[in-house]
Design brief:
The protein is of the alpha/beta class. Helices cover 40% and strands 17% of the residues. It has two domains: 214 residues, NAD(P)-binding Rossmann-like Domain (Rossmann fold), CATH 3.40.50; 78 residues, UDP-galactose 4-epimerase, domain 1, CATH 3.90.25.10.
Length: 316
């Protein structure tokens, strides 16, 4: 069994590589010359890293026809919502073009490859209170360029399954976090600020944006197990929510982190951290995926946040 992970050097990609290696799967991953390798230095000798520019059709064709992976986990993307407001065209092009090149190569060469597309709960966008918990049948009302790009990826995967019978499975993952989460993401940003305060390298204030948004957090180590099961047991052409099934506000999450610290810290609102529009609530219904695969998240949020804070304590 050979699995290709696009975005292997990223947050979820590195955890997925670890998990696949534990299953004795041969792991290859795409990198570029500017890829940061710090997340996979501990497993670099156990995987094969291959140069590939996903936006270049020839580069993708060369890689896939030479390697012929059994599974493709397509995680590579511009995944930070605020960046998509500043660079909407780049976000949409990057996230759609790479996937399209993968699909076209698999189609033209009739590769018997199963492909998981890492979609996002951000696609649901504006959700009415009576629509929660959100099922896969809920309307998509994206509220950011990033969310629009993920909806495009989602629909492309469905279209290539229906048009060409390519084995695609779409996973709409809700908020996930844990060690190695990029510092621009809210849980990791708060954890890093707290770790820096504890070390005395910044004043005892945490700068925050909108604290009232409600989010469904899952540990990344549970999420990557779901990605594997999506291709092992998921139905081709289907989409599945990946979530914990419980919801807290960003403020509650922040106080969980603050309670793990031994120092007194003030909370300071920062207008620069506010978005032009924000999704008020994201709470996922995972019953379809659980029924299909038997997956359930195992790691409680308290443990996830503890591990994330420890990760930053070791690095600041």
């Amino acid at each position: 069994m050979k699995a290709l992970i696009t975005g292997i050097t990223g947050f979820a990609g590195s955890h997925l590589a670890e998990y696949l290696l534990s299953l004795q799967v041969e792991v290859i991953g795409t990198v570029r010359n500017r890829s940061r390798m710090n997340h996979i230095t501990h497993i670099e000798d156990k995987v094969r890293l291959l140069e590939c520019e996903l936006r270049d059709p020839f580069s993708v064709e060369t890689l896939l026809t030479q390697e012929k992976p059994d599974y493709i986990f397509h995680l590579a993307a511009q995944s930070f919502v605020p960046t998509s407001w500043n660079s909407p065209a780049d976000t949409i092009y990057n996230n759609v073009a790479g996937q399209l090149n993968i699909f076209e190569t698999v189609r033209r060469y009739q590769l018997p490859t199963r492909i998981q597309i890492a979609c996002s709960s951000e696609e649901y966008g504006h959700v009415e209170a009576h629509e929660t918990p959100i099922t896969e049948d809920n309307p998509l009302r994206p509220l950011s360029p990033y969310a629009v790009s993920k909806a495009a990826q989602d629909y492309l995967a469905y279209q290539y399954f229906k048009s060409y019978d390519i084995h695609t499975v779409r996973t709409r993952t809700f908020n996930h976090t844990g060690p190695r989460r990029g510092e621009q993401f809210v849980t990791s940003n708060f954890a890093k600020q707290i770790a820096e305060i504890e070390k005395g390298v910044r004043p005892p204030t945490v700068h925050v944006g909108n604290l009232q948004a409600q989010r469904d957090f899952t540990d990344v180590r549970d999420v990557v197990k779901a990605y594997w099961l999506a291709l092992e047991k998921g139905e081709a052409g289907e989409c599945y929510n990946i979530a914990s099934g419980s919801c807290i506000t960003i403020e509650q999450m922040l106080h969980m982190l603050l309670d793990m610290s031994h120092v007194s810290i003030d909370i300071v609102p920062d207008p620069a951290r506010m978005r032009p529009s924000d999704v008020e609530i994201l709470l996922g219904d995972t019953s379809r995926f659980e029924k299909q695969t038997g997956w359930k998240p195992q790691i409680p949020l308290e443990q996830t946040l503890h591990d994330l804070l420890q990760y930053w304590r070791e690095r600041v």
